[in-house]
């Protein structure tokens, strides 16, 4: 799913249609199917079909969240790093969008948010979490580029 959305966002804005996503999904499948980690799952043919179908239904949900033809994608799969309280953090941002206010970081999530009981009490607060929840709205996302907001595109598929 992430790969299809990455490919879709690299298309010209006017071509980010559900039909184009379907074409990209078909071309991206062999890459997934032949990946050593996917093969190691040992899925039979029926389970692989179910996996593909669930992935596709998740991709379709994008159009319920936003109109991809109206997003000004600056970059996809951006490597980021920061040090918070002396602790280094590294990650990959799914999408960096340009808006009239600056850059918007978007990260796709397909699972569900953890319930409070799933997260140890000691991890539910603290400086790092406060920064993530409500830190300053203006940060540097790339050298010289203002970071104005972030968003998580989160949806569930059945």
The coarse overall form would be globular
Strand portion: 25-35%
Radius of gyration: 18 Å
Measured between the Cα atoms of the first and last residue, the distance is 14 Å
The quaternary state of the protein chains shown equals single chain
What is the H/E order? HHHHHEEEHEE
Key features of this structure:
five-stranded mixed beta sheet; disordered C terminus; 30% strand; single chain
Give an overview of the whole structure.
With 158 residues, this protein is of the alpha+beta class. It folds into two domains: 2-69, no CATH class; 71-154, no CATH class. It is built from six helices and five strands, in the order αααααβββαββ. It has a five-stranded mixed beta sheet. A hairpin with a 2-residue loop joins β1 and β2 (87-99). The two termini are 14 Å apart.
Topology of this protein?
Layout (H helix, E strand, L loop, with lengths): L1 H8 L8 H16 L2 H5 L4 H16 L1 H4 L7 E12 L2 E13 L2 E8 L17 H8 L4 E4 L2 E10 L4
Parallel strand pairs: 3-5
Antiparallel strand pairs: 1-2, 2-3, 4-5
Helix pairs in contact: 1-2, 2-4
């Amino acid at each position: 799913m992430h790969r299809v959305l990455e490919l879709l966002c690299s298309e010209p804005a006017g071509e980010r249609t559900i039909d184009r996503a379907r074409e990209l999904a078909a071309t991206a499948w062999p890459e997934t199917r032949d990946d050593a980690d996917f093969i190691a799952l040992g899925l039979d043919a029926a389970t692989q079909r179910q996996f593909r179908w669930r992935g596709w239904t998740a991709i379709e949900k994008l159009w319920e969240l936003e109109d991809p033809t109206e997003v000004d994608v600056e970059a996809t799969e951006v490597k980021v790093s920061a040090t918070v309280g002396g602790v280094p953090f590294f990650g990959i941002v799914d999408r960096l969008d340009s808006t009239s206010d600056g850059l918007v970081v978007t990260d796709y999530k397909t699972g569900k948010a953890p319930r409070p009981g799933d997260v140890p009490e000691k991890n539910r607060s603290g400086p790092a979490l406060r920064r993530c929840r409500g830190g300053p709205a203006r940060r540097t996302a790339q050298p010289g580029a203002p970071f104005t907001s972030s968003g998580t595109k989160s949806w569930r598929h059945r």
